[in-house]
């Protein structure tokens, strides 16, 4: 059985402390997930906005000085003709774009995988110009005892995927951008296969087709090649716009089990299962016809960006599979299942 946790959502913006005075947490969602020292750790995407004033438009920004960075606030006169409120996500001032929210990665910890305490301070946050507009949607894989965290970085040069490593979830070593703009939804396989590292990724498609799931391989997790498209959106309502990978795949006797998202009609997001060959992970063995999870609950259908369920964090624990998912770009939901049920969904 595949069951949404009855007391969802398990994390909301109210559970997260703002990273500075004048900020307000708009969303805590899209968490990467891993088991570390008998705890479940979530790598939350925390999106913060600014407290507003009737005469001023305030936007969060990061400043970079002397090799360090810190969060700050930019203010614009609301009546200034050079200020344009683009939509709920952006402000344009004299032709330059600013975001109404800024994201970083924050750790949340749990002994049972259900009740979480969120750290007070950011874990991964913008450090340089390539991350000026935020760090988003972390995924984490344990490979040979070391933890590899990839996340989306946003800047004036668009979005790309960066990599960091940690041994203790206290100190982090940044490895820089590993998939150039515009590419995201990168999921690392949690072990070497045939002497190489492997990943799913999702380059943007501004050509003749729609954004799809791609495969790549690497000798060192930094340099990637042998790219190939392995799954494209199907002619179904849930995949009308695009698809993209989710959490690092889970190894099963039948193949690598991946959960991916589809963006469909009316910008609604759903989750599907995909099974990849154990030795040739670029080969699709099976693909589910029906969605695994769709937005049905108020916290999924209503929020900052409604009708969204988006997962980039899955853990196996005690014979169960815990699927953590972002809901409406605002909070975190939990779905509990097991490997057999997921394999039966095809």
Structural class: mainly beta
Q: What assembly state would you assign to the polypeptide chains in this entry?
A: single chain
Which descriptor suits the 3D outline? Answer: globular
Low-confidence stretches are none
Number of separate domains: 1
* CATH C-level category: Mainly Beta
For the secondary structure, the number of strands is 26
Summarize model confidence as the mean pLDDT. 96
Q: Can you name the CATH architecture?
A: 5 Propeller
Approximate strand percentage: over 45%
Number of helices: 2
Largest sheet: 5 strands, antiparallel
Helix content estimate: under 10%
The helix/strand order is EEEEEEEEEEEEEEEEEEEEEEEHEEEH
Distance between the termini: 13 Å
| CATH homologous superfamily label | Glycosyl hydrolase domain, family 43
Radius of gyration: 19 Å
CATH overall fold name = Tachylectin-2, Chain A
Structural notes for this entry:
The protein has helices spanning 298-301, 339-343; strands at residues 3-4, 23-36, 39-50, 56-65, 68-77, 83-87, 90-93, 96-99, 102-110, 117-118, 134-143, 146-155, 158-166, 173-179, 183-188, 197-203, 213-218, 225-231, 242-244, 250-252, 255-263, 269-276, 284-287, 309-317, 320-327, 331-337. It is an all-beta fold and 346 residues long. It has one domain: Tachylectin-2, Chain A. The strands form 7 sheets. Strands 19, 20, 21, 22 and 23 form a 5-stranded antiparallel beta sheet that branches. The protein has a 4-stranded antiparallel beta sheet with strand order 1-26-25-24. The mean pLDDT is 96.
